[in-house]
Structure formats: structure tokens, C-alpha cells
């Protein structure tokens, strides 16, 4: 059976940092078992067979292998591998009673107690029988891995949560059992068991997959060749994606500085230019022709873009995402360095960039054009230069422009600062000379670079040089320079001031970019910390709304489809033609910070159904007041996050990406709470099943000899006196205080306890002997008591330890009893907070005393 192994190669040579990172990962995984997944496109490809072959190899080298559960489905070759010789060691299955039938399931408790080195658990997506510890088998596997047990398991691609909808669209068959993607991502080893559709259909026809009518029905439906081909592509793509991710991890661990061209991947640089739209579409066409994935990268340089350019950038990135690109936003002042770093991180084989339109002299002053710097640093990566549209004569001057897009306030700060420095220089010039004044202006320009942009720095350098020339270089009050050294100093002053000012501005922009990245990372950390500390779905949502308000200064509202507190508002949203049987009802959490109008409700429902952002700042229902992001985990949409920023504030693409990341974290937290609630429900169900079994045991004790009991009862009825009085023949003496107050007890339980004791006294004492009943208060009126005493033979010492146990009867007891009377008495009294005490009657016989708590009622006051 061919198998493609998707395990990670072990890097044997790397730098010390990479080795340290690998060691830390190994240390973290040391206490956790390894999950090996045998993966296939459909039933019958040979996953279980391959798993058993691998298990026998491990057994041959001395590994402690144990079969937890393997389904052979009647396939002879699979059964032969399981049964041997020699047979693989196997756990007995655990029986669960369900709806008049017995279900045999994997015994998790026995596996944890046995603790083998390797455990085989077939069919990862299986739903466990009611009463099991976990609802799903993958949850059993998670517990096994947490206990340090290595697990082999099997899975078909249709059971993966993120692929379930796609499989349903391909085959037309709904998928009822799914496994979260996170379980697969945690697998240490995925082995793809691959067959061609023709080979699998041949196995189906020969009865190696299904038998009889089931095989014929499968061949006409799920096992159509077109269906199998599409499922095979899904399985191959998923395995390839995993291998690609592993390659990226290895490159980061080993510090690799070159591209490993295992396939084609394109990167396109996206900016605010109108030409970027054409560039994105060109890259999409090339990626389609090469059947390659592609990445759209935007570089934040720290400069604030004008509103129209920010809008174009967002539109270009939205277009790239819509056309299938992975959108990445990085921060760096050096665009070329940022693009090369992104290309290396994503293992890009080809970079697509627009042809530069700046003047060659400006490119020379900047150290070369963007294309030149990319080509020099690209190494083995190809660089495609796409020509832009030709410029008209009217806008060629823009190639020479200096970036002066700064706020007017910054120019004012530069002018005011130079004015103050000039006044100081006029005072110092007679003593220090005009050369010293130049350094004063130079220090001022460099210092301004920390606070203002490039345009104001250029203006400050020019104004400072001209002021120095006019006021301090002889001849004064002219712009004429008569000495060569003064002219050289003037030129050098201007150049040094401009260069150092720009460098300072660049450093400031880099620091701002780093600060922005740090703020994003801190915000995510704080959100995950708050969500982890939450103890319920309600606390999860409240923590998320608080953090969203703090980070974005916006007003959030969260809709959910989950089963959470009944205090939520129910929104009956209008039906939509896009709805495919889904419930048109959302729940709004009461922490919503703005008024939800019917329009916002409709936008939230659209976002939920289509699992895409909608509303403000998008192309879908952009007239909405809020930006709506669906809360999606795998193939499940759990709700919608709506965020309304203040009026006039625009969310950048980076901010929207952060909001989507917040939404993903919130969705994971809500899913975790749902799983925790499901686990608690499963635990309660298990406890209920245990109680049910205990009750059945009690009933079965009576039903072991039903005919004997019926016969004995019939004889007793035939010979019993007409009055049927249990105390007949036993004088009853009752002693009660004259002012016995009312007691606050459960009447039915207390009455039944007293009746049981009176019946016992009559049954276990000779005829004619009296039975004594007394009651009263003791301990200062805080406790009430009832005493039943007799003049019988008393209690033998051998009965002391088992007197109140269920189904225990005295040696001389009459036939027909169950041995439950005293057990019931004790249970009814202890349920009310009391106790039962047994003693000997001084005159002979036994004494049973029932103690119950008592509180004297306070007298009512007249109003």
C-alpha cells in the first residue's frame, strides 16, 4: 500500500539559537505523547491496514504495543494482521447499555491504567456511546496524549472540520462526525495512504470495502470517480500544506537564509498606488497559470498616509484577499529589506514588483531603486518587474518631489525652534564666532528629526543654512560668501543637516513601527490572558468587549449562536435568500456598547452566514455603522463581533487584521467553553448512569427469586387476619410531653421512618410484648427526638457493622423481606440533617432513637 510520509526531518546542523528553540519544543513535548495519523481520501484505501503494519514493526523492535480498538469491517487481510500469529495484544471493549441494546466501545479507563508505549485507536472521528467519559473519540485520544501515551489513529479527509462543507458540496452527503483542525495540527506524524480512484473502485467492486447492496449503492454515490478524484486532491493538498508549514518551521529553527524551491510561490508588493491594482491582478493570473500560491505584502514604513492613499491601500489588499492571496502586513522603514524578509519567511520563489518611475538621480541618492535593491538581495529568488502605465508630461514632475506630507503644525514647530535658536546665536556670536553658531544650528536640526517628518526636516535644514549665511557669515546681511572655507562649510552644513535629520526621522519611524508591533503583540497577549482566566462564556465575552474597547477605542457588540445565559436578547432576524436552512436567530450579549438597529442585525446575519467580514470599511453593506467579523472555528460559525469606531475614524488594514485575530481568539475561547460544558454534561450523564445501575442492582436483588416472593406473599395473605394490623398482639405505649411544640420536618419521610421501625419491632419481638414510643426535645430545644423501644431479644453484636446496609437481614428474620427497612430509615433521617442511634433497652430489647434538628419559631409581632 503506497504511503506518503509527512513527518518533519530532524535538522542535525543549525546555529545555537535554532538548537535551543528545538530543544525547548522537545522539552515541552516530552511529557505529551506523539500522535501519528494515518490519513486517507475515503474508506477502503487501507488506513487501518497500514496502521497495523506499522504497529507490528514497532512490536518487532520491542515496543510495548496495545490495540485499544481496531475496526476490521469484515476485511480478511486486516483481520489477519490483527489476529496474527502472533496476535496483537488488545484491550477488551467496554459495554454500554443504550436503548435496549449493548454498545461495545473503547475502554479509556483501562487504557490509562495499562499505559502502553503505543496504543492503537481506530476511527478518530467516532462518536462515543452515551455514558462514556467523552462525547467524541478524539477527546479520548487527547486525554491519552496528555497522559504521555503515543497513539496511532486513522481519519478520512471528509471528517476534518475545515473540509466538511467542501466534501458535502462535492459528494452531496452531509458529514455528521468531524474532528477539529487543532487535533490534526498537533499530530507529530501524518501518513497519507493514497490510492488512485480506479484502484479504490476496484477494491469496492471486489468486496474489500463494502459488501452486497451497500457496495453497489456506494459505487453509484459517494464512490463515483469524480468524487474520489476531488477527495484525493483535498487529501493531497492538506498533506502538502502541512509539509510546507513544516518546511517553514525548519527554516526558522535553522536560520536558513535561502529559498528551498519545493514548489512555486509568488509574492507581490502592494502599496497605495493605483498601479498596485493592476499588479495584483497580474500576479493572480501568473499564479493561476503556474498553479501556485501567492502572498500579497504591504509594508508599513511608519508614515501616516493621507486618507485617499490609505483607502486605496485597503482596497488593493482587499482585492488581493478576494482573489485568493494570503495578505501579510509587515513594518519596516526599508521597503526592500521588508519584502526580502517576507519572501524568505514564506519560502517565495518569485517576487513581483512594479517598474520604478522615479528619476535615476533620486534613485542614486537613495542607494539605488527598489528594484535594484531587491535584485541585489534576492539570491535564488526570481524578481519580475511589471511596467507601469506611461506617465503624461504633466505628472512627470512628481518623480522629483520630496515627501513633504506632514502636518502644518510640524512646519510651525521647526520655524519656531529655529527662531529661538537664532536669538540665542545672536547673543553667542560675538564671543564664539560664526563657526560655532553652525554647530548650534546643526544640533537643532538633528534634534528636530526626533519629532517631525521629512518635509519639515528638509525645510529646517534649508532655513537654518540660509539664516546662518545671512546673519553670521561675512559679509553680514547678504547671501554672498566671499571665502572658500565659508562656502565649503555652508555646503557641508546643509548636507550634514539634511542627512542626519533624515536618519533621525527614519530611526523615529522605525521605533514607532516597533512600538506599534509591540502594542499589537501586547494586546493579543492581554486578550488571551483574559480569555484564559474566564470561567464561563459570559465572562469570556465581557473580557473581550473590555479589551476591544481599550485597544481600539471603539464600541463593541457580540452576537452569538451558542447556548449561553438566558439574559441575552433574542434577535429574530429577517430571512434571507442566502439562508440554507440555518436558524435566522442570533443572541446579543447584554454588554453591547451601542444600539443595535435592524440594519446592523441584518449585516451581522449576513456575516454569520457567509463567514466573511461585512459592514463598514468593506464592499458588502458598507453603509452600516459597525465593522462585522464572524467568529469562526473550523466549519462552525459561533457568532459575530461588531465594532463601531468613533465617527470620522477609519480602521486601517492592519487594525482590521488585528480585529480578525481578536475574533479568532474569541471564537476559540467560546468553543473551549462549549467543549467544557459538553464534558461536564457527559460527566453528569456518567454519574446518572452509575446511579441508574445502582438502582437496577437494588431491584435485581428482589427479582432474583420473583416466584418465591410471590408465592410467600400469597401464602401470607391467605393466612393473615382480616385487619391486617402489623402491631396486633403488641401493646403500644406512647409517652409525649404535654407541651410538645410543632416540629419542622419532612412529614412523609419522618412518618415512613417511624412506620419502618414500628414494623421491625413487631416482627422481631415475641407476641404480647409491648412497644414503647416517646418523643421530646433536648439540648436546650435545638434537637427533637423520637424513640422506639421493644422487649425483644435485642441486637446481636455481629449485626453492629452491617445493621444499616442495604439488603442485610437478621438470621431469625421472617421470609419475604428485602433487608432495606433500616437502610431507608437512616437515609430519610440523614437527608433532613439528623441521625439514627441504636442502643439496648435496660429492661431487655432494642432502642432506636431518631434525632432531628429543631429551631424554636420566633413569635410574630402585631403590626
Report what the structure shows.
The chain is of the alpha/beta class and 863 residues long. The protein has 25 helices and 24 strands. A 6-stranded mixed β-sheet has the order 1-8-2-7-6-3, sandwiched between helices. The N and C termini lie far apart (91 Å). Residues 1-29, 391-405 and 563-584 have low confidence and may be disordered.
Primary descriptors:
6-stranded antiparallel beta sheet; elongated; 863 residues
Secondary-structure blueprint of this entry?
Layout: E1 3-5, H1 16-30, E2 35-40, H2 47-60, E3 65-69, H3 76-83, E4 94-98, E5 101-105, H4 108-114, E6 118-121, H5 137-146, E7 150-156, H6 164-171, H7 181-185, E8 189-193, H8 197-205, H9 212-220, H10 225-254, E9 265-269, H11 275-290, E10 293-300, H12 307-322, E11 326-331, H13 335-345, E12 350-354, H14 360-365, H15 370-377, E13 382-386, H16 408-432, H17 434-448, H18 454-472, H19 484-533, H20 537-552, E14 555-560, E15 569-572, E16 585-588, H21 598-610, E17 614-615, E18 627-633, E19 636-644, H22 653-703, H23 706-719, E20 732-735, H24 747-763, E21 771-778, E22 783-790, H25 821-830, E23 835-840, E24 846-853
Parallel strand pairs: 2-7, 2-8, 3-6, 6-7, 9-10, 9-12, 10-11, 12-13, 20-21
Antiparallel strand pairs: 1-8, 4-5, 14-16, 14-19, 15-16, 17-18, 18-19, 21-22, 22-24, 23-24
Helix pairs in contact: 2-3, 11-12, 13-15, 16-17, 16-18, 17-18, 17-19, 18-19, 19-20, 19-22, 20-22, 24-25
